[in-house]
Specification:
The chain is an alpha+beta fold. It contains 4 helices and 13 strands. The protein has a single domain, classed as tt1808, chain A (Alpha-Beta Complex). The strands form 4 sheets. The chain has a 6-stranded mixed β-sheet, sandwiched between helices. The chain has a 3-stranded mixed β-sheet with strand order 5-4-7, with no helix packed on it. A two-stranded antiparallel sheet has the order 1-2. It starts with 24 loop residues before the first helix and ends with a helix.
Length: 198
């Protein structure tokens, strides 16, 4: 979810990935996450910066609204860190940890991860992740067919919702004062005034 480190010191421990190689989920599981968390996209590791307080506050409020709506329903909501293996049935070289996901197919879930494509993904931007979330992840989520991709900007207090339609994303922009529909969840609406409230 954060910046890619293209170069590393030559004395980096063996447990950490070299950034000039391609990796799979089995490699990813061997890395020591005590120092830094990572994601893999098409075998390339990306280092994830730790979230700040504002990020976590927004994430908690989103989770609360989604969790309340989904109580007693078949779809489930999951928070990061939770591995999402977007191509687990083929190369298994893409592992992301979106801030929040909605999964309506229980058969792609196991105790450790989501082994497939969630119905919906939400990413909350930080200065170090904005380009990554809006470009690299955007292209990957479109490629694998994620139906709904939300990008939340805490600084601008805005939301961009990308809805998959005929192989492309149609984008809808919202401000912090609106209540917005969730396209993959019938009758679900998220109150952004509560999400962005201080």
């Amino acid at each position: 979810m954060e910046d890619n480190k293209n170069t590393r010191d030559s004395n980096v421990e063996e447990a950490l990935p070299a950034y000039n190689k391609r990796y799979t989920y089995s490699d990813y599981l061997q890395w020591d996450d005590d120092e830094e968390r990572r994601e893999l996209i098409d075998g390339v590791p990306y280092v994830m910066a730790g979230p700040n307080r504002k990020h976590q506050k927004i994430l908690g409020k989103l989770h609360l609204q989604f969790g309340n709506f989904l109580e007693g329903k078949p779809c489930e909501v999951y928070l990061s860190p939770f591995d999402v293996r977007l191509n687990a049935d083929t190369l298994d070289d893409t592992v992301v940890q979106p801030d929040l996901i909605i999964v309506c197919d229980e058969f792609i879930l196991d105790d450790a991860s989501c082994k497939g494509v969630p119905d919906m993904v939400i990413e909350i931007l930080s200065p170090s992740t904005a380009s990554y979330d809006r470009n690299i992840k955007f292209k990957k989520y479109l490629q694998v067919g994620i139906k709904e991709y939300w990008i939340i900007d805490p600084v601008a207090q805005s939301l961009a919702i990308h809805i998959l339609q005929d192989g492309s994303y149609i984008t809808h922009a919202y401000t912090c004062e609106e209540t917005v529909p969730v396209h993959v969840l019938k009758d679900c609406r998220i109150d952004l005034t509560k999400v962005f409230a201080e």
